[in-house]
Amino acid sequence: MRLCTSFVARHALPAFGFLILTAGTQAQTLNGIHIGEDIATASRIVGRPTSRVAAGPHEEVRWRLSDGNMFALATDPVNGRIAYAEETWGGRPDGKPADFPGFRYGETTLADIRMHAQNNGFAFVERLLDEKPDGLRLFNAYEVEGAPGLVVTFVSRMSTPDTQRLKDKQESIDINRAAKLVGIILGEARYLEAIWGQAKLKGKNYKPIRWTSARTVALKP
User: Fold this and answer.
1) Residue 21 pLDDT greater than 80, yes or no
2) Would 213 be classed as within a structural domain?
3) Domain range holding 188?
């Protein structure tokens, strides 16, 4: 279901903002997969793919991981190398730890992320919101510091009841605390622009995000 522009302007954009952690960068991967690697590295993932999903030039190969999470890869049609990796939380407790240090699926809220951001990120206009039966998803993106051309997108979800209350204005909903992390997308910037469009909304005082590993940060439950 598409949401009207006025709804986006009133409710999604005020929640737009994100993260930065502590010193010391690490190799930015999802499940050990680097963007730009040969697709043969997908053999690191245990088990056969569960499905292939195509939408125009974008085709995802998907796996269900041992912790119940879903993992997807897509390759650049020009060079055949991995250009897109996405992990989606499957709802199980053992699948909560995310590859971005200090973040946990189903627990980390937009408020938690904003507290560590120190700046606003950006959003692809064509991939700002996505309403599904289980609630409203928001997509907040960052260039990764020290990794030119690499973009990480954090996917957060509001429950269906909270989404409906927000739309109906029946009661006050704090989208920053209601929306919780359910997925992370790591992608090559040019590839993301090819599938999501080049139009972006960039927050004030924007700067790339630092992907760190020196220490983790305890987030509120």
Assistant:
1) no
2) no
3) 29-202
Q: Residues 110-119: pLDDT tens digits? A: 888 777 767 6
- Looking at the 3D structure of the chain, how many domains does it have? 1
- Stated pTM of the model: 0.82
10 within a domain of the structure (yes/no): no
Which tokens in the block code for residue 110? 């937009």
pLDDT tens per residue across span 99-112: 998 899 999 998 88
Q: Is residue 211 part of a domain?
A: no
